Amino acid sequence: MRRVIGFLILAAILVGIAFGLGTLPGEMSATVGTYSFAASLPIVALAVIILFALLYVLIRLVAAIFGAPGRFGRGRHQRQLRQGERAVTRAFAALAAADPKAAKREADRARRLLPQSPMALLISAETARLSGKTEEAEASYRRLAEQSDSAFLGLRGLLRQALDAGDWTLAADLARRAELAHPGAPWLRAERAKLALRTGAWAEALALSGPEAPRAVMATAAADAASDAAQALRLARDAFAADPSLAPAALAYASRLRARGEERKADGVIEKAWTRGPHPDLATFYMARDSDVMARLKAADRLAKCNPEHGESHLILARAALAARLTGQARQEAQAAIAAGLDQRRVWVLRADIEEADAAAGGGEGATFAAHEALRRSQTAQPDPRWRCAACTAEQVEWHPSCPVCGTVGQVAWTNAMAPATRAGGPVITLLPGEAI
């Protein structure tokens, strides 16, 4: 209805203009050489209008002739674009159907039709990967990574290939580049944390991990790996603050304090750790600076007072007393250690050493018999504690931040085979040698 009304209005305007021109008075004439022309003003106006109309048609015709190749090229490009998009769609469908041959055929067609399209490159790379052509897939992923708008897609593909190949160092570098290309992806940050653990980049793993991770373990490992003394001290302090019961963390912090000449602070760290979780290495470190046996006995007594009821406190006193040839006190402390729950081989072997020392000092056959009896009891006593993984129960000679056998992070604890090995502080992070992140 609007078009009809508009047409009627336009027709009325044109009729009015024509009527106005037809009623214009006047005449126009022109003389060219021997020729003379004369016409009324309405006729001249009509001729001018017709001339402009013919000129307009001529210009459009010329433009159409010269623009025909461009229009043909644009039309061809649009057809290629539509065909390429259909090829990409069919290739994705073939990938979803696990049909590598059809996917390869459609991907090649998409590459021919859309040589610079990120989607065509991506589908070509995915098809090559599905077909086992890793080099071809890598080439396509690299081309994607070179384009700013598709860099993340290319880097993610290269990252997946590096993970499949077990090249953790390359994978860690690609993960860093991918996060720069697309910041804020939670899954990528988690992968970076796992890759940092795999490559032993403990400081980076600590920075990338959340509060639920075994941060004391990771900070201790980072401190041991740090080349800068100030950074190592800071990491060791953070590790001890996160878990004062972790003996390696306490030792890492105390050893760096002692290296700086801060003996009193170092002793305070060991004493605090002893109240939380006594460990033989803590006592060894605490008494290491004293060479005199009586001074070592006094140091053992100071440390034992931090946790007087614990069996380890009685045990270090027994060892220090034996070194000072105080066999009576040593026997008493060893028996107290057993009564406190340390019915273990090492304690009975120590009892045997005490009785042998007593026998050598003139204790007679009774002391010799007591030594033999202590050795016999050691055969049936509980096994000595060891560093043992709570995940796979594998025993280790020394502490490790991650189990060398099963790869579990933060689960190596000081315990014996009779008790379950447990470590507090977050979920288990397992990095098996062939695990895909």
UniProtKB/TrEMBL annotation:
One of its GO terms (cellular component) is membrane. It comes from the Bacteria. Keywords: Membrane, Transmembrane, Transmembrane helix. This is Heme biosynthesis protein HemY. SUPFAM superfamilies: TPR-like (SSF48452). The chain crosses the membrane at residues 44-68. Residues 27-132 form the HemY N-terminal domain. It is found in: Membrane.
